[in-house]
Amino acid sequence: MFTGKQNETTDKIMLEFAKTIEMFGLTPLEARLFVYLYIKDKPMTLDEMSEALGKSKTSMSTSSRNLSDLNLVTRVWKKGVRKDLYEGNSQLYKSFMNTYTNKWIDAVDHQKDSLEEVRKELEQHNHEQDPKIHQQLLKIIEFHKEVEASFRNIKKD
Q: Along the 157 residues of the chain, how does pLDDT read in single tens digits?
């Protein structure tokens, strides 16, 4: 991926950083691409990314689009270059936390709404259900509320 004496060290950094990035739900290729663009710190074409990572241009296009949707990669314009250029977002913490905090809030909110619907159904058919199940459901809904509140607090910071 890089040339010269720093090649081995850079590859190790990229490998380990990509493992961290994968924990945020990115595919291994998306993580490697993001790390490569972040370390390279300059706009690159799909052809350049494809050559550097040894993957197809189609794979690079798909991965770049996914990373762009997550605000981790930006498509940029450069005078005299007719191809699309992409660069990694340099504000790592903010980018990842905003993207994934919003994902968690949306997911937890959706689950909480679904569980509230189940609660309403249970209460309509109260005579048919075990009261213990209703209590457990209330605890699960409260758990979702607490998770959502925690992520909203993270988002504020």
A: 445 556 788 788 888 889 988 888 889 999 999 999 988 888 999 999 999 999 999 999 999 999 998 888 888 888 887 888 999 887 876 777 787 888 889 889 999 999 999 888 878 876 666 778 888 888 999 999 999 988 888 877 6
Helix (H, G, I), strand (E, B) or coil at 73: strand
CA–CA gap between residue 127 and residue 9 (Å, rounded): 66
Q: How many residues does the chain have?
A: 157
The reported pTM is 0.66
Whole-number Å distance between alpha carbons of 108 and 39:
33
Angle 46-79-61 from CA coordinates, rounded to 5°: 15
